[in-house]
Design goal:
The structure is a single chain. This protein folds into three domains: 67 residues, 2-Layer Sandwich (Ribosomal Protein S8, Chain: A, domain 1); 77 residues, Alpha-Beta Plaits; 86 residues, Roll (Structural Genomics Hypothetical 15.5 Kd Protein In mrcA-pckA Intergenic Region, Chain A), CATH 3.10.290. 25% of the residues lie in helices and 33% in strands. It is built from seven helices and 15 strands. The protein is of the alpha+beta class. The longest helix has 17 residues.
């Protein structure tokens, strides 16, 4: 197991163990295993570990094209991928649009306020006032019964076919930059084009999240597919490390989703 651990953070080792258990289950029972919704970093870890086996494959789906949180279907390689295998439902929020405004934060709070696990909830998406969310299909009846308000707004959840999902309008911009290291402060400074001191201040003041967890560790290394959220700026991700320059710096490809 140590040969796997060396590729991931110490705090990711428990998830690595979990993925390994999933693979063993699929290998021994010859049946697919469906995960809960995974964030991009978790998807990367699953893909990296499954990729070491020729007999097992993995595919991802989050309800529609372009979703960030997706379920992984780990299966024997001879089993074909079918959309229905992912057990994902789409719910649309019905509310008085002319008199009320909803926000992602309030919707997430209302859903999690019912007591369900965050891992059972996929992306929350919206287009021109229409709000929808992807959930584990087994929870639709529960959520339609218990989610009746978002903030101070009375709402109801209505299940819709997946094909009626609104388009996802978030478009990550790719660009290539050169950085001296993968340190969090260095990466943020390069990605946002701000000074390293400014980047450090953002981190130590609690304005930065790494994979949805607050961090004040300026020297934390950024790994591939990590999502870095910077309050007031937007999000960054490390897509790939391309090569080292003659001055021993890192040429990397990053993705940015910056606030307008």
């Amino acid at each position: 197991m140590n040969h796997l651990y060396q590729h991931f953070r110490k705090e990711e080792q428990s998830f690595v163990d979990q993925v390994t258990d999933w693979l063993n289950q699929v290998d021994y029972q010859y049946t697919p295993y469906l995960t809960s919704f995974l964030n991009p970093r978790e998807q990367f870890i699953v893909e990296a570990i499954v990729g070491q086996s020729d007999a097992i494959s993995v595919s991802f789906f989050g309800g529609t094209t372009g979703t960030e949180r997706q379920r992984a279907l780990i299966k024997p390689s001879y089993i074909e991928d079918v959309e229905g295998h992912y057990d994902i439902a789409l719910c649309e929020i019905s509310y008085p649009e002319k008199f009320s405004q909803l926000s992602h934060r309030d919707i997430l709070g209302a859903i999690l306020g019912t007591g369900i696990d965050r891992k059972k909830l996929g992306d929350i998406i919206q287009d021109d006032g229409r709000w929808q969310l992807f959930v584990d299909a087994s929870l639709v009846s529960f959520l339609t019964l218990h989610v009746t308000t978002v903030g101070r707004t009375t709402v109801s959840l209505i299940e819709k076919p997946l094909k009626e999902a609104v388009p996802i309008n978030e478009h990550w911009q790719k660009k290539n930059i050169v950085i001296s290291s993968r340190r969090l402060d260095v990466f943020i400074a390069g990605g946002l084009r701000i000074s390293r001191d400014q980047a450090k201040q953002l981190i130590v003041s609690g304005k930065v999240k790494l994979n949805w967890t607050s961090t004040e560790n300026v020297s934390e290394d950024v790994n591939e597919k990590d999502i870095i959220s910077v309050r007031g700026f937007g999000r960054l991700t490390l897509l790939s490390i391309d090569y080292r320059t003659r001055k021993d710096k890192l040429a990397v490809e990053i993705g940015t989703l910056l606030q307008k």
